[in-house]
């Protein structure tokens, strides 16, 4: 067990093998970039202290994949082709160009994507960022030595699955990444992907200068392309960032880069982080938490104190928690619908800490995403509707239907499991619980053959679009014998056709609407019981400004924070 | 005696008729949670230089407490001591702890029962003797060491210049007791108290130690108090005897008085329970029936009465109700017993003596 | 004596080998796969395989253990091609988690643990023994009773509680000190001590109470010994009786326990290090076990065991020096 949020996130997301998006696409980047609002001069300067439970998993851009590291690395050090605006509220999940001049131009039926690098973008040593550096970075991500990062390049690029990475390719490189000149990069995809520009927001698509690549040691000092560079990095102890003089704010619409220096301290107890920030002693007035949230025991007192509440950012953490219904084992739609009505979301949420733990979920796409659609297919109170569930069961002639619930055996999950059992039994099911070792939980339920009727899971998307939720969780083509993530084992032609259509839509606004419709359709098919959209609360010292939770990262926005 | 810069107590007036050591009406009481322990209750005796006093009695009769009181080792504890202890004309009970400390080891010294536990296991025998010498004599280490070797030689330790650096556990039992005696005598004390000095030793070594003590007494002309439960030991070395029971003296006199004409049932009991080496016993050893009295609830009247076989010879309940006085029989021989002088003499000659 | 030392040292060596082997075995009894953990969210079976190979955990335990031991003596080379990682002897391998050399991680962490342990040790020995002696000499008085009550309460206080309380009141609430962070002794001895003060107090608090009770009990026992009576009968001053004759004997058993306690701490003062965010060996071992970081785990475990065994050995030598009755054979 670990208390670390990013580890929790990792476990919740499971091994996101996301063999996503088939389909085809078209259309170009339609988003308008958010101009950095001319911040008052007074916000510049100072040192921001970041108090963390644990060291970042990886800051090497091609290995960076978990929340706090993603936020810290992408927002301060390693720029990618696209990124997300640094604004409060749902607009934070707005896709904007970063190193690229626009959101990319698809062609060839969405199978070719072309990006142009901005002028004046440089590495921390002053050398200009060229197409070859981006190409090299992406190639790196495909090496089996550069582990832990997203594998989208390998999955999406022509020949990616066979490519061994730049260390073993004899200098040949991958042909499906082409540099027509120093500024223009072309990706040849093995299938049509209408929103490939979301994928390019991942730091997988960050440039790496080949001459500076130190393989696994690159983690200790990734060459910066962002507003800060690493001054010193003592792994698992502390990290000091100072301004990167070769970063030109004119080329960057995302990062505000207010503080002169950022000092991250790792290895703090989450209770200590809370206490220090609450107490707001002089040295902690410019500090924030990043990979922890306000602990349950402190939350009420913080939110009830107006002075503390002022310094607190509350919001959704980007996760949806759900109970997958194995549609292979529970074939009858009426029985699945009975489950939807039977589940008592209130008692479930109670086991996670009540209203502070999250908002009741009605679908799997969280409200911070543009693709979220407001609907409530099963209009039952949060406590469930056992009478209606019983009625459905009776009409399906399935009273006493046997259910087995898989869950990772943690104390909290055990309580949640008991709550599920109580509600389901009340509605006429015969429920048994199947606690599984948390370390191997996703391996176990990732085998469709042995998976039980219900499985407790969570999902945090890799980018704020339905394409990172619906296809990995509900695309029947992605059911694999091991490492499966379609825990509902939904293999529905209608859903698959609509997934293909959505993937093929290059107008991101239109695409978003399609995902929202799909979310609702899947609910009608009762493949999943959405439980809550996770919530989190983070607090900052009294001299920290721009304290808000970023819609996509679900944490304080590293790109916007300032100290007085 | 050394002329060390130790504050010499006020000398006794020349006219004082006091004995060298004179204990008068000594009481030592310990308040405890269970009640007041009357360890010593009105004890008086005296010893002259060159003489040896034996104090005998069962365990718990107050022998050892008496000796520790003389050395002032109860000072600063919860023990309540009243009465007088005069040593060479100086009263010790009322003296400050610090003043008594200066006399300890110097004027009066003590040999303890079990030399293995009485010697510090972490220091060499020599170091412990040297330390004792240097407390009272301002000399350098080398001189003190020479003195220690001299003392070890004097008490009969072979190759003392080597053994001086040995630890107590490297000595045999007898040698340890010799070393203990050397430690006690290193400052030429005028009073030596030996508390069960031979109990832990085997019989042949016992005799050697007793001989050694006699020799040393002649040489230093010191007064010796031997505390023991073993009448054989006192018969060997003592001039006078005090028999203690329940914190009180029940019979005292010369060794001859007590061995040849004892006049107290407890003393008879002690003699009857003593094995004899000089001749064949007539009958089996007779232990004294019963157990020693509790010092918290001392039996009323004569403390010995619950165990006494002759109390019926005393009219009425006198033995149970009245504490007998320590009364003189003849020439300094005193007993604390209600039996009539005639009964005492008759019982001794007719009943007790023949069975010994 | 010389032969005794040699024999004991050989014993220590054998024990180290056994402990490292057991740590290896225990590690592989865990069902989780460190390669899968390290490879994280974006993982495929091929990548796991490659990672296992890089970590060297795709081989049988005995082979792995053999390579580990060989690396310790002759050094090792990990990986191949462009990803070669040379590890000179004594090679403890590279961390699965951060790819840092384990030896370096340990040598970084050790001074911190050493500083915490030694400082706390001095504090608790001083306060524990002195209050223990006072309490024993004043047995039954109000001083004794208060001391015994306080120590009983203190012994029952877990160090994370003490530590957090100190942090809360001294640093957070009243701001009397800044939040401690380790400064090397050689860099600035004053800052070193200043920053370590709270951890020292935290750790010493717990142990001092134990040592007070222990000293008191031993002292009471010793002061009742016959040789103390002898010392008094010699006419020694009470000070000499207490300190030269009483304390010396009373401290002997404490030496043993102090040695073991110090040895245990040198392996890492886990809770104190965690509360004050000092990256010593204790945190290293906790972190490495949650991260399934075998090389670090084995390295720290063996080192911790080494300290315990060595201090045990030193205690035996010391004991023989203190108590002449003890013979080393």
Strand segment count of chain A: 19
Instruction: Note the total helix count of chain A.
Output: 16
Low-confidence stretches of chain B: 1-15
Under the CATH scheme, which architecture of the largest domain in chain A would be assigned?
3-Layer(aba) Sandwich
How many helices of chain B? The count is 13
Strand line-up in the sheet with most strands of chain A: 13-17-12-16-14-15
Assigned CATH superfamily of the largest domain in chain A: Periplasmic binding protein-like II
Mean of pLDDT of chain A = 88
N to C succession of SSEs of chain B:
EEEHEEHEHHHHHEHEHEEHHHEEH
CATH class of the largest domain in chain A: Alpha Beta
**CA-to-CA gap between the ends of chain B?**
45 Å
Topology:
The complex is a heterotrimer of chains A (564), B (356) and C (329).
Chain A: H1 5-13, E1 47-51, H2 67-77, E2 82-84, E3 95-97, E4 105-107, E5 112-116, H3 131-140, H4 152-156, E6 177-179, E7 184-188, H5 196-199, E8 228-234, E9 238-243, E10 261-265, H6 270-279, E11 287-289, H7 296-304, H8 306-310, E12 312-325, H9 333-342, H10 345-352, E13 358-360, H11 386-395, E14 402-408, H12 411-426, E15 430-436, H13 441-445, E16 454-459, H14 470-474, H15 493-503, H16 508-524, E17 528-539, E18 544-545, E19 562-563
Parallel strand pairs in A: 1-10, 1-11, 14-15, 14-16
Antiparallel strand pairs in A: 2-3, 4-5, 5-7, 6-7, 8-9, 9-10, 12-16, 12-17, 13-17, 18-19
Chain B: E1 21-32, E2 35-47, E3 52-56, H1 63-70, E4 80-87, E5 90-91, H2 97-103, E6 108-111, H3 115-118, H4 125-136, H5 141-154, H6 160-163, H7 173-185, E7 191-195, H8 203-220, E8 223-228, H9 231-237, E9 240-245, E10 248-254, H10 255-260, H11 265-272, H12 318-321, E11 326-330, E12 333-336, H13 341-352
Parallel strand pairs in B: 3-8, 3-9, 6-7, 7-8
Antiparallel strand pairs in B: 1-2, 1-4, 4-5, 9-10, 10-12, 11-12
Helix pairs in contact in B: 4-5, 4-7, 5-7, 7-8
Chain C: H1 2-29, H2 34-39, H3 45-55, H4 61-74, E1 76-78, E2 85-87, H5 102-137, H6 142-156, H7 159-173, H8 189-223, H9 226-233, H10 238-266, H11 270-275, H12 281-290, H13 294-322
Antiparallel strand pairs in C: 1-2
């Amino acid at each position: 067990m670990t208390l670390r949020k990013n580890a929790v996130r990792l476990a919740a997301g499971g091994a996101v093998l996301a063999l996503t998006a088939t389909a085809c696409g078209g259309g170009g980047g339609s988003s308008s970039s958010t101009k950095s609002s001319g911040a008052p001069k007074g916000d510049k300067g100072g040192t921001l202290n970041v108090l963390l439970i644990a060291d970042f998993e990886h800051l090497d851009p091609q290995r960076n994949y978990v929340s706090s590291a993603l936020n810290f690395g992408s927002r301060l050090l390693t720029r990618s082709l696209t990124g997300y605006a640094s604004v409060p509220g749902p607009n934070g999940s707005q896709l904007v160009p970063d190193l690229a001049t626009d959101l990319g131009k698809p062609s060839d039926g969405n199978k070719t994507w072309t990006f142009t690098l901005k002028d004046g973008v440089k590495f921390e040593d002053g050398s200009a960022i060229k197409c070859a550096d981006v190409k090299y970075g992406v190639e790196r991500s495909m090496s089996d030595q550069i582990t832990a990062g997203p594998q989208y390049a390998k999955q999406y690029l022509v020949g990616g699955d066979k490519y061994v990475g730049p260390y073993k390719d004899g200098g040949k490189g991958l042909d499906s990444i082409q540099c027509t000149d120093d500024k223009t990069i072309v990706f040849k995809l093995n299938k049509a992907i209408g929103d490939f520009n979301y994928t390019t927001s991942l730091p997988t698509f960050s440039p790496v200068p080949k001459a500076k690549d130190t393989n696994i040691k690159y983690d200790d000092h990734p060459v910066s392309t962002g507003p800060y560079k690493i001054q010193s990095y003592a792994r698992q102890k502390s990290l000091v960032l100072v301004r990167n003089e070769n970063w030109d704010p004119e080329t960057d619409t995302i990062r505000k880069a207010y503080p002169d220096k950022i000092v991250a301290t790792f290895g703090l107890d989450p209770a200590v982080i809370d206490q220090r920030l609450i107490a707001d002693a002089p040295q902690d007035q410019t500090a924030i938490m990043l990979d922890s949230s306000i602990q349950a025991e402190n939350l009420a007192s913080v939110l009830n104190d107006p002075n503390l509440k002022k310094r607190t950012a509350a919001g959704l953490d980007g996760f949806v928690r759900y109970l997958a219904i194995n549609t292979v084992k529970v074939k009858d739609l009426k029985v699945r619908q009975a489950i939807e009505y039977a589940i008592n979301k209130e008692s479930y949420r109670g086991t996670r800490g009540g209203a502070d733990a999250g908002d009741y979920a009605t679908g799997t796409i969280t409200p911070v995403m543009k693709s979220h659609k407001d609907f409530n297919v099963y209009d039952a109170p949060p406590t469930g509707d056992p009478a209606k569930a019983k009625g459905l069961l009776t009409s399906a002639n399935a009273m006493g239907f046997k259910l087995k619930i898989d869950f990772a055996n943690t104390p909290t999950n055990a309580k949640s499991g008991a709550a599920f059992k109580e509600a389901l039994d009340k509605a006429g099911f015969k429920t048994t619980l199947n606690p599984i070792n948390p370390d191997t939980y996703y391996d176990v339920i990732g085998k469709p053959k042995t998976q039980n009727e219900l499985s407790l899971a969570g999902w945090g998307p890799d980018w704020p679009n339905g394409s990172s939720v619906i296809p990995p969780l509900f695309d029947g083509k992605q059911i694999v014998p091991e490492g499966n993530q379609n825990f509902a084992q939904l293999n529905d032609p209608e859903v698959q056709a609509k997934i293909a259509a959505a993937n093929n839509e290059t107008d991101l606004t239109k695409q978003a609407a399609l995902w929202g419709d799909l979310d609702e359709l899947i609910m009608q098919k009762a493949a999943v019981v959405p439980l809550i959209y996770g919530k989190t609360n983070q607090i900052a010292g009294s001299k920290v400004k721009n304290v808000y939770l970023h819609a996509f990262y679900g944490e304080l926005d590293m790109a916007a924070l300032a100290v007085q | 005696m050394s002329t060390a810069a130790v504050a010499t107590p006020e000398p006794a007036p020349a006219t004082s008729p006091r004995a060298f050591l004179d204990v008068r009406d000594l009481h030592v009481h310990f308040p405890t949670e269970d009640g007041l322990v009357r360890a010593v209750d009105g004890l008086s005796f005296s010893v002259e230089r060159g003489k040896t006093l034996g104090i005998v009695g069962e365990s718990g009769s107050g022998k050892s407490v008496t000796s520790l009181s003389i050395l002032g080792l109860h000072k600063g504890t919860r023990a309540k001591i009243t009465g007088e202890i005069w040593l060479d004309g100086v009263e010790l009970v009322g003296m400050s702890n610090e003043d008594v400390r200066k006399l300890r080891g110097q004027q009066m010294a003590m040999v303890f029962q079990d030399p293995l536990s009485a010697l510090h296991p972490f220091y060499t025998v020599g170091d412990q003797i040297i330390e004792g010498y240097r407390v009272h004599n301002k000399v350098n280490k080398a001189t003190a060491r020479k003195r220690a070797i001299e003392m070890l030689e004097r008490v009969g330790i072979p190759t003392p210049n080597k053994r001086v650096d040995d630890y107590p556990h490297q000595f045999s039992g007898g040698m340890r007791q010799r070393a203990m005696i050397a430690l006690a005598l290193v400052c030429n004390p005028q009073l030596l108290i030996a508390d069960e000095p031979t109990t832990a030793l085997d019989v042949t070594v016992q005799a050697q130690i007793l001989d050694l003590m006699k020799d040393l007494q002649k040489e230093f002309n010191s007064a010796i108090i031997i505390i023991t439960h073993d009448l054989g030991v006192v018969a060997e070395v003592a001039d006078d005897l005090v028999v203690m029971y329940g914190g009180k003296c029940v019979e005292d006199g010369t060794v001859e008085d007590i061995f040849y004409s004892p006049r107290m049932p407890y003393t008879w009991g002690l003699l009857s329970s003593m094995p004899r080496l000089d001749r064949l016993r007539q009958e089996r050893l007779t232990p004294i029936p019963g157990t020693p009295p509790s010092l918290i609830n001392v039996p009323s009247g004569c403390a010995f009465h619950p165990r006494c076989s002759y109390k019926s010879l005393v009219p009425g309940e006198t033995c149970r109700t009245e504490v007998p006085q320590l009364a003189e029989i003849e020439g300094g021989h005193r007993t604390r017993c209600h039996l009539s002088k005639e009964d005492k003499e008759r019982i001794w000659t007719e009943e007790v003596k023949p069975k010994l | 004596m010389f032969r005794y030392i040699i024999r004991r040292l050989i014993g220590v060596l054998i024990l180290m080998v056994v402990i490292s082997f057991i740590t290896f075995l225990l590690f592989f009894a865990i069902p989780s796969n460190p390669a899968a953990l390290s490879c994280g969210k974006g993982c495929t079976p091929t990548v796991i395989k490659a990672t296992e190979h890089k970590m060297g955990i795709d081989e049988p335990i005995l082979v792995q253990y053999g390579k580990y031991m060989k690396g310790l003596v002759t050094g090792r080379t990990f990986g191949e091609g462009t990803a070669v990682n040379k590890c000179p002897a004594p090679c403890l391998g590279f961390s699965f988690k951060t790819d840092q050399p384990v030896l370096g991680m340990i040598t970084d962490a050790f001074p911190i643990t050493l500083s915490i342990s030694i400082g706390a040790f001095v504090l608790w020995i001083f306060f524990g023994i002195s209050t223990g002696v006072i309490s024993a000499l004043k047995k039954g008085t109000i001083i004794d009773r208060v001391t015994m009550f306080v120590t009983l309460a203190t012994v029952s206080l877990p160090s994370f509680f003490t530590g957090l309380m100190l942090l809360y009141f001294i640093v957070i609430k009243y701001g009397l000190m800044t939040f401690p962070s380790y400064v090397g002794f050689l860099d600035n001895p004053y800052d070193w001590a200043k920053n370590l003060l709270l951890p020292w107090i935290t750790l010493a608090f717990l142990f001092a109470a134990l040592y007070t009770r222990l000293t008191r009990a031993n002292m009471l026992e010793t002061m009742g010994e016959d040789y103390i009576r002898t010392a008094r009968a010699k006419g020694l001053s009470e000070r000499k009786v207490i300190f030269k004759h009483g304390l010396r004997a009373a401290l002997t058993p404490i030496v043993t326990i102090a040695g073991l306690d110090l040895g245990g701490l040198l392996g890492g003062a886990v809770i104190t290090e965690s509360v004050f965010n000092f990256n010593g060996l204790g945190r290293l071992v906790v972190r490495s076990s949650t991260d399934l970081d075998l090389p670090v785990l084995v390295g720290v475990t063996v080192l911790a065991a080494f300290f315990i065994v060595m201090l045990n050995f030193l205690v035996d030598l010391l004991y023989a020096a203190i108590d002449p009755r003890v013979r080393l054979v």
